[in-house]
Each structure stands twice: as C-alpha cells, then as structure tokens.
Amino acid sequence: MDQPASKSEAADSSRRSPGLIGCLLLAPLLIWVVAFVVAPALIMLVYSFGEREVLGGVRLAFSLRSWSRVGDPIYLSILWKSVEYAGLTTLICVLVGYPVAFVVGRADERRRPMLLTLVMIPFWTSFLIRTYAWVTILKSRGLLNSVLMQLDWIGEPIEMMYTPFAVIIGLVYTFLPFMILPIYGSVEKLDPSLIEAALDLGAGPWRTFRRVILPLTMPGVSAGILLCFVPALGLYAVNDILGGGRVDMIGNVIENQFKGTARNWPFGAALGTALLAAFALAFWLTRRPDREARIGI
Known about the structure:
The protein is mostly helical. It folds into 2 domains: 1-48; 69-295, MetI-like fold (Orthogonal Bundle), CATH 1.10.3720.10. Helices cover 76% and strands 1% of the residues. A two-stranded antiparallel sheet has the order 1-2. Helix 1 (2-48) packs across helix 12 and helix 9 packs antiparallel against helix 12 (265-295). The longest helix has 47 residues, at 2-48. The radius of gyration is 25 Å and the shape is globular. It starts with a helix and ends with a helix.
C-alpha cells in the first residue's frame, strides 16, 4: 500500500520541480522588471499628480493641473509631429529592411553569419558616436556635400543639418537593424516548399509574395514595427544632435521638463505617462493581428 503512494508522491514532486526551477530562473528577470520598469512607471505616475516646487522638484499632492496641460494644442501638435516622424522612420525601415532581411534569411547557411555580422556592426560602436558621425557627413562642408560637389551634381553646399531630413536620417540609421533582425527570424523559418508550390500552381512572383511570403513573415514585421516605432517616438538624443533643437519632438519636451530650463517635473511626468500609454496602445495594435490569427477570427 505504501509503495504506490511513494511513487505517486515522487511523480508529483518531479512535476512540481520544473515549475519551481522555472520560477527561480525567472526571479532575476522579474526583480529587474519590477525595479527598473514597474517602479519607475509608478513613481512617474505619482509625480504627474503632484505640484511643482518653486525651485523645481515635486510636492506630493493630488492635482490635475499637469494633466490638464497635456491636452494643450501646442503639445498635441508636437506629439502628432513626433508620431509622423516615428511613423515615417518605421515605414522607411520596413521598405529598406524587408529586402535586406529576406536576402540574408534566404542566403546560403555558410554566408548568413557574415551577413548578420554586417547588420550588427553598428552596435559595436557607441550610439552617441554613431550619431555624431552623421554630423560630419551632413554638415555644409561634410562628406556628402563634398561628394555631390565633386560630381558636379550641386553648385553649392546643401543645408542638411538641423532639419527634419537630418533627424529622419538619424532615426532610420539607429533603428534599421531592429527592423531587419525580427524579419530575418521569420524569413529564416519560411518553408521554401510553400513558395515552390505557389509558383507551380501558377501564382506569379508578386502574388506569391503577397499571398504566401508576406503573411508568413508578418510576425517579424509586426515585431520590427514595434521595436522601431515605440522608441523612435520618444527618442530625443538624435533630435538634439542632428536637429539642433529646431525640430520639436515630444521626447525633447519631456527632457526639457526634467533637465532643461522648464524644471516642471509633474508636467514632465504627465507627458511621460501619456507617452507610456501611447506605447501600450501601439503594442496592443501590433499584437492584435497575431492574437486574431491564433483564435481564428
């Protein structure tokens, strides 16, 4: 009688042990998320309902004054302009990154590591150094203007620095690898026999891409859009360096509330919380097609 019971207890303990081990393995990640994601977000939310001190800082009190300013047309126009820049950056990254990811994903297995290394090379250098390098390229007497003048394509230097063009170039350069890598992961898993079957059944290259390749690689495209659009919406370093503060984006407005001359932490926290809500909405919109596909809607 005791032996079957001991066997069942051993089986139960063996089933519980993987769950316990999984919890222990996830514990560092959960601690990191709570300490550096959840806690700062809650602090920012609390600050957004506070009052601005005379010399800066926050006086904790329940007030909706900062939130009432979030809906000001000036800041809404800046937010919309930021959405436009982030959307244009994401669109360019999709148009440029998808062909690159497809070529890398369908390349010979011996060449893929080298091609992936070329994609990852920008990460070997500091983000700020890479951004300042574009100053050397885009300035009036920079590399790009010098080449164009040597080719007699232009008669005098084109002013590219401190313009929306320079900001978009910097954003695309920064986030293009984040678009290529997720799409590459989807392309690599693509079954070549499905493409061959579509072609054998009479579908042309464009129809095969539209009806077979693109739907099967959409998870990678959705992940790339999320990884590009969300950080591009709030990034301020590229705009500071390449835009020279002349191109207003919501990230620069928030940064100015905490570190600049405004020194209005509650209002900066309210803008940051609103931007975080926009990030959550963008994540929900990009993940919704995948959920609908899984449940068969």
